[in-house]
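Journal club side-thread
Mid-discussion, someone asked how the predicted structure for our own chain would compare to the paper's figures. Pasting it here so we can look after the session.
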Amino acid sequence: MTNESSTAKVSKGDIVHVEYNAYLAEGGMLFDTTNADKAKEAEIFNENLTYKPLPLLVGGGRVFPGLDEALAEAKVGELTTVEIPAEKAAGARDPKLVENIALREFFRQEIRPEIGMEVNMKNRAGTVVAVTNRMVRVDFNRRFAGAALRYEFTVLDKVEGDEAKIMAICEMDYGTAEGFRATVADDRIVLYLPDVCKYDQKWLLTKYKIVADIREVFGEVNVELVEEYLKKEEKPAEEAPAAPADEKAPEEL
């Protein structure tokens, strides 16, 4: 990561690394963090997640609008606290998005609903809020809809250098930059893909995000995604070990 002066200003279009803690404004419950210790203390630790500073494209719409705005006004190295109203977070809560669904619909999908369970019904994500003998009440509002949020965050650095920015975009969109390589020349960017992309279904959708974000940062450039199928090197024939000086080779026996 690039060292930045503590007075460096963040602007829309910058790629930055951010560490943060996110709370409900009312009650102060921690619901998200980049710090593993804090996640464990709050009993929200998820062993499937990696807790580390996140790469973000400022103004890229990857976080709540209120947080995006605060990032664009932040300074590198400074701790910033911002309270975000519901309309600039998960939005207003819509009572019409709380629906009753027949219990048998869950059984058809071999789901035994429980309160708090996250489910996907008819291609909509929701949370089970009540279960009766015949019906299940599901809230299809976005998580924290209607709630004000508080973020404490620090921008650790701004990513500098063309290749470093492309790698940060890969990590941001695909979850890792491991195995990727990039070359940049004028209006042409070539991104060489790791072997895992050849058979990963997730990549089929992610590649469009990566191309869009590259163009967001670099302008309307040509982007080439290259799968490499390299020729296998032939192993040299192994020579038979020489017979010890005081012994005869087999053909001499």
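Post-session note: Residues 10-91+144-158 form a domain with the Chitinase A; domain 3 fold (CATH 3.10.50.40).
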